[in-house]
Amino acid sequence: MTTLTLDAAEKILDAAHQRAQAIGKAVSVAVVDAGGFPVAIRRPDGARPLTPDIARAKAYTAAVMQRPGTMLKKWQESQPVFFSQLSQLPGAAMPIMATEGSVTIKKDGEIIGGLGIAGGTAAEDQQIAEDVLNSLGYELEFAAWGVAGGGN
């Protein structure tokens, strides 16, 4: 079983902040393990105060839902009441946010955590997350739910 170490999380944070600086953005970055528990969170100078909490909720969503936030958007749109209730469950530590900048961390076919980026536009948050995970050798392909052949 692959695990997400603090060293790996810090490499993700460093790469995300470098990528954000390159486009002139101050973004907060959160990395959580497969259970949604924080491994590392960083808010740089100039990032808005609420961005660490948003980044953590995005990372949490990507980890516990086991899919990137962008893949969850249609589900949320088609079943908004159900989706809003997910955040109210007794075991839910954070709100479920089906949005850009919420990307599942996957290595060797195994989901090992979630990455949340907050502080840029939705598209910028998403691009930073994808660029960073891709550059560090993580997988970005996920089977759609409900697809024949065990895509669940």
Task: Sum this structure up briefly.
The protein has helices at 6-22, 51-64, 69-78, 80-86, 122-135; strands at residues 28-33, 38-42, 102-107, 110-118. The protein has 152 residues and is of the alpha+beta class. The longest helix has 17 residues, at 6-22.
Structure description:
This protein has 152 residues and is α+β, with helices and mostly antiparallel strands. It is built from five helices and four strands. It has helices at 6-22, 51-64, 69-78, 80-86, 122-135; strands spanning 28-33, 38-42, 102-107, 110-118. It has a four-stranded antiparallel beta sheet. α1 (6-22) packs across α5 (122-135) and α3 (69-78) crosses α4 (80-86). It is globular, with a radius of gyration of 14 Å.
Task: Please tag this protein with its features.
152 residues, alpha+beta, four-stranded antiparallel beta sheet
Percentage beta strand: 15-25%
Uncertain runs are: 147-152
* Helix run count: 5
Structural class: alpha+beta
Q: What is the topological layout?
A:
Layout: H1 6-22, E1 28-33, E2 38-42, H2 51-64, H3 69-78, H4 80-86, E3 102-107, E4 110-118, H5 122-135
Antiparallel strand pairs: 1-2, 1-4, 3-4
